[in-house]
Amino acid sequence: MSTDPGGFGNKKFPYSKFPFGPVAITVDKYDRVLVSSLNDRVQFFTTDGKFLFGIAGSGNMPGQLARPHGMAFDSKGFLYVADAGNQRIQKFAVPSP
Predict the structure, then answer these.
(1) Domain locations in the chain?
(2) In the predicted model, what is the mean pLDDT of the chain?
(3) Nearest 5°: phi and psi at 70?
(4) Confidence at residue 56, expressed as pLDDT on a 0 to 100 scale
(5) How many of the other CB atoms lie within 10 Å of CB of 65?
(6) What pLDDT does residue 9 have?
(7) CATH among 1.10.10.60, 3.40.50.1820, 2.40.10.500, 3.90.850.10 for 22-92
(8) Sign of dihedral through CA atoms 1, 50, 53, 86?
């Protein structure tokens, strides 16, 4: 559970003795695997698990996340992320490969 790019962090919460990591997974139209995790990241991987890139960062400003959960794409390819810690839904344009 690394904090490096491609890792899922080691964030701990007072109510649990275990660190939290991945929460949700989805696949985009390019077969990239997206994983949201409680370390405030949404990361893109190949289908064989190679890290590609991440979007967003920790915070409460537009484009930043706090404990992202569910993800979904619309018909135009925009990514919607349930930004649980900020109590909002954020929309992201996803770069093509």
Answers:
(1) 22-92
(2) 88
(3) -65, 155
(4) 81
(5) 28
(6) 63
(7) 2.40.10.500
(8) negative
